[in-house]
Amino acid sequence: MTRDGEAGRVAIGGAATGALQGEEAARELMSRRASAPAVRVLRSGRARARRRLRHAAGLLVLSAAVTLWARRLGDGLGDASVATGWLLATVLLGLAAFNLRKLVPVLRLGPAASWLRWHASGGLFACVVFVLHVEGRVPDGRLEGAVALAFALVTLTGFVGLWMSRTFPKRLARRGEEVLHERIPRFRARLHAEAEDVVREVAGPAALASGNALASFHARRVEPFLAAPANRWAHLRGSGAPLATLTRDMESIRRRLDVEESAALDELLAICRKKDELDFHDALQGALKGWLFVHIPLTVVLLLLLVVHVWAVHAFGAAA
């Protein structure tokens, strides 16, 4: 009996140990699964940092090499302005190819994100080549001034678009549900109609004429806000001040309302907040789409001016 008891205790102890080990293994597995997303995010962030560092280092090396090459040409071994001019034209044509990639995505020319990185790096390199081409001076001729102005505008709009493409999607993902830009006017009209129904149900159709506080406030402040897009620049800046002001104004009339009207005011406030979400998405998505209608036409103008500039330089240079 003693031996059997000891064997039983050993068996029970072994089973308990195995159960504890199983629980520890299960907890470790759950911990690994829980930390896996954070590890992936950390690795992805490190990979992006290394990628950006490589791009920056390559850009610095290439810019330094081109600068030394242009200086050697300027020291008497060749015509630096002609060489840097052709190099600049080549770089600009290469940058314009990014738009061709968007037009023919079926060709599978690589991920758009990779093209965007190279496009941004190429834009910075083009700025270096442009400064070398004009030798750090402000162009004084009309044609040269027009080319320089077009180049500056294309560069400015390009980097504004790059900043928006890096920041706006993150801001959109953090606030509210994803809304298709084309459906925003339909949702806006629906909220407008809901607000009118709320006021009509509580205050009655003749409330505005009788001086009802809720109906008067709705007609003066809420209805114009719901009827059309609002506060575009505030949303682009990330400011919530307009909605806070409207909320404060709505709360200021609550003491003049009865219980039923106060509940209706809460409904109006909820509708206004939904409308503010729509305006936020409309502003940021519209900016992401609309800036291309500025950047691409300016690029076309720049390329046309570049062709005229090349023709004028060679035509008048040959005549001289």
Structural summary, described in words:
This protein is mainly alpha-helical. It folds into 2 domains: 52-175 and 297-319, no CATH class; 181-290, no CATH class. The chain contains 10 helices and no strands. Helix 3 packs antiparallel against helix 4 (142-174), helix 6 packs parallel to helix 9 (259-290) and helix 8 runs antiparallel to helix 9. The radius of gyration is 32 Å and the shape is elongated.
Main attributes of the structure:
single chain, 320 residues, mainly alpha, 2 domains, 10 helices, 0% strand
Distance between the termini: 120 Å
- Major pleated sheet: none
Note the run of SSEs as H and E: HHHHHHHHHH
- Quaternary form: single chain
Average pLDDT number: 82
The overall number of domains is 2
Discrete helix count: 10
Rough outline:
elongated
Write the layout of secondary structure elements.
Layout: H1 2-77, H2 80-103, H3 112-133, H4 142-174, H5 184-203, H6 213-227, H7 232-237, H8 241-252, H9 259-290, H10 292-319
Helix pairs in contact: 1-2, 1-3, 2-3, 2-10, 3-4, 4-9, 4-10, 5-6, 5-9, 6-9, 8-9
Summarize the structure in short.
The chain is mainly alpha-helical and 320 residues long. It is 84% helix and 0% strand. The protein is elongated.
